């Protein structure tokens, strides 16, 4: 995949789309083969190197994984809370919530947000480190078509405006068509 492009991972349920995203994001470890990101083979990285690598990857999970006791603002800040940053964490989180159209809901808990709003908070959270690589697992799967379309617009604008590489696992043919390329998986194999 070329830097600054968008690629859709397609295929039936159980084909390995989510697993591939987890491998690229170093959430799961490889048991064979290799994955090279930005010229670095990530399978052989030490624990400390993997932690540093993971901070360069934004991950948007299918089920959002927002912390229920934290506000939208605090959910966005959470990934960088334990780290020193060159930016003001609160200010960055507010800017990202504004980017996804939710600055006015910064104090809301996840239970007070719609599914689309929760997905937008999850996207803002994934961007808090301004990652060059954004991985999204079925980002429109739990949303109505109108909300899903706005999420697709947002993800692709990140590619266009920030130069992020966007890899999306999806069953949505409309989303796949809007990406720069598509890779089809079946039974864990690229077909």
TrEMBL record:
Instruction: Give one Pfam hit by family name.
Output: ABC_tran
Listed PROSITE patterns: ABC_TRANSPORTER_1, ABC_TRANSPORTER_2
GO MF terms, alphabetically ordered: ATP binding; ATP hydrolysis activity; transmembrane transporter activity
Q: Coiled-coil ranges per the record?
A: none
List keywords of the entry alphabetically: ATP-binding, Nucleotide-binding, Transport
- Asked if Transport is a keyword of the record, the answer is yes
Q: Any keyword Oxidoreductase?
A: no
Q: Which SMART domains did the record assign?
A: AAA
Query: What do the Gene Ontology cellular component annotations say?
Result: plasma membrane
Entry protein name? ABC transporter
